[in-house]
Design brief:
The protein is built from 8 helices and 5 strands, in the order ααββαβαββαααα. Strands 1, 2, 3, 4 and 5 form a 5-stranded mixed sheet that branches. It is an alpha/beta fold. The N terminus is likely disordered. The chain has one domain. The longest helix has 23 residues.
Length: 303
């Protein structure tokens, strides 16, 4: 009843307003709309450049003249902090991803874990309290690497253990610098700028995820996210990502359901490259593969 009275009052008010307008009055000018700017889609070269820059930003950079680090052997996966059945599902999916992406996986029940994923209980506190500069888990990292791990925003902390080796797979002897304090971290000076003997191998990876932040996400999403953080020295993208990626799992309100074309290109092209390939070449190959996948998706969606 009250709504009817309100409607009637508005009707009478509108009639009164119409009667008070002079007959010769012209209607007000239409509000000028903002101009619509139509931007053409980026060219293939522009898109490749955009994705190349994104890949370079996502993959944690190697030291000067060193190739991008990657696993040289099939990974052995261990997942902790969840119910046994859930942990087993995530571990198996990470192994499946590693096999599909050309990394390989060790299924032996007694293998030595090289990829460790831990879901941190609420009792551990926020992520900023999980690790410090003096944490033994980070002792093998150089100072700038520890700062990068500790400074990561969000509910995840991840790092890789990397060894620098020669062409035969033998680790170089430690030299001056952080090696006196962290002897498992090696650093070399190539004989020349074009010397190809140095290779960088990931010998272990750790991914810590806050269990509360994982609530509401699928086991597949969590496994695919851990896959990316473990197989590559990656960080979380900063700002808006120019391509869909599972790496935005904890920052995007509508993240992907699993690995995307860009994610697969990122891992496959790195592991398909030679062990001493220059980073610029790897980033270019990643961008080209990702753009090719996008073109294929467009053709598949066309009527």
């Amino acid at each position: 009843m009250r709504r009817r009275r309100l409607t009637a009052g508005l009707t009478l008010l509108g009639a009164f307003a119409a009667a008070s307008v002079p007959a010769h009055a012209e209607p007000p000018e239409a509000t000028r709309a903002d101009p619509i700017i139509v931007r053409p889609p980026p060219t293939e070269a522009e898109r490749e450049r955009e994705l190349r820059d994104f890949a370079r930003a996502v993959i944690r950079p190697a030291k000067l003249r060193e190739p991008i680090a990657k696993f040289a052997f099939p990974v052995c996966v261990e997942v902790r902090g969840l119910a046994p059945d859930d942990a087993a599902v995530i571990a198996e999916r990470i192994r499946d991803n590693a096999r599909a992406l050309g990394v390989g996986a060790d299924d032996a029940p007694d293998c030595v874990p090289t990829v460790r994923v831990a879901f941190m209980a609420p009792a551990a506190g926020p992520a900023a309290q999980w690790l410090t500069q003096d944490s033994p888990q980070l002792a093998h990292l150089a100072g700038y690497q520890r700062e990068r791990v500790l400074g990561e925003p969000g509910p995840v902390r991840a790092w890789n253990k990397v060894a620098v080796r020669d062409a035969t797979g033998k680790a170089f002897r430690p030299q001056l610098g952080d090696q006196f304090r962290f002897p498992t971290f090696t650093e070399i000076e190539p004989l020349s700028a074009s010397d190809p003997i140095a290779t960088t191998e990931i010998t272990g990876a750790a991914v810590l995820i806050g269990r509360e932040a994982a609530e509401g996400l699928t086991l597949g999403q969590l496994a695919d996210y851990a896959t990316m953080r473990a197989l590559l020295g990656t960080g979380a993208p900063e700002g808006a990502a120019p391509a869909l990626t599972i790496l935005t799992l904890f920052s995007d309100p509508r993240p992907p359901e699993g690995l995307t074309d860009f994610d697969r290109a990122l891992v496959r092209e790195l592991y398909d490259a030679s062990r001493n390939a220059k980073p610029r070449r790897v980033f270019t190959d990643i961008a080209r593969a990702a753009v090719a996948a996008e073109r294929s998706d467009v053709r598949d969606e066309a009527p």
